[in-house]
Here is the input.
Amino acid sequence: MRVLFLVQYPRQAPSPRYRVYQLVPWLEEAGVECDVEPLIRESDYAAARSAGMYLDKSRMLAGGFARRVSALLRARKYDLVYVLKGAFPYGPPIIEQLLRTGNVPVIFDFDDAIHIHKKSVSHPFLDYLKSTRRVGQVAALASRVVVPNEFLADFAREFNSAVTVVPEAENTERLVPRTPHANGSKTVIGWVGSSSTAKYLTLIEEALRTVCDRFPNVVLRVIGGKFESEGVRAELVDWNFDQEVQQFHDLDIGIMPLPLEEWSKGKSGCKLRQYMAAGVPGVGTAIGYNLELVEHGRTGFLATTQDEWVDCLSTLIERPELRNTIAAAARRDVEQRFAINVIGPKLEAAIRETVDEFRVAPSKAAGRAGRSVA
Here is the structure.
């Protein structure tokens, strides 16, 4: 069986890394030959995620679209085309429509609430070309939709009756647990993300200020973004894929604040799950998939109000033995629920079922929409 994966970014980006790249070795061991083609090449990734550089970004997108056309011409050589977040992120879903017309089975995977508009930080000049309606359009064109949580599944079922929930996997062989931490001269509360998501730290700014005032040895380490606030001792560190494991291991506590809005319900707890896998006790906002991911008080903590954030962080700061207990329980939970050898079979089953159904009845296996999208 041959599958062509069309992703938007190379493996440095979290979405394709977690949804596709890290599962490819397992799939190939299971007999699924995989070709992965990113829209933006690895050499262009840093520029693509930077502000400005509009001419360079236009060139990248033009080259990416040309490669998508090339992939379209080769699509019939594959048993299935797996599209992550859309073959091309702007304008109408032309590639997916042509795949449907060409009678090629397609799985559409989206792992964020991209049907809810969020202004782009890296390339706002292209926002006017985005349409939240295209998510439903692609879902209706696909043979199957694969998503990581029930919130996104409920949305997808409005457009397609064949929806499979495949949670995000964690590479537990790469992201190994740290050794238990003892009380040191400094307690590091860590956040890992990007320039576009660092703004969510402002949601718990008051709590962070209170904690820093209460505990003089506490510092907030911001990895991959920028955050400054009077009264919050912050260290800014560049995220580095090759150093990522050590960056997690250097944390005493990990945090994942989210806004209390519908968009957050589409998140799949990536940061919290990474903390858990690395043996770092985490605190996240009590919303969406976080409520399923974390068992409050056993594998992490969940908070909503500023006072709750202060209480959770203070408890972990004051009780290093509890940090280690939670870290161990969280790591076991990730191994049991999200390891690649657990998630890989779920994705393989969705792929094989889609291909088998398409071979039996191509017309029924494509576009089984719950409702049409104009």
In short: The mean pLDDT is 92. The longest helix spans residues 54-74.
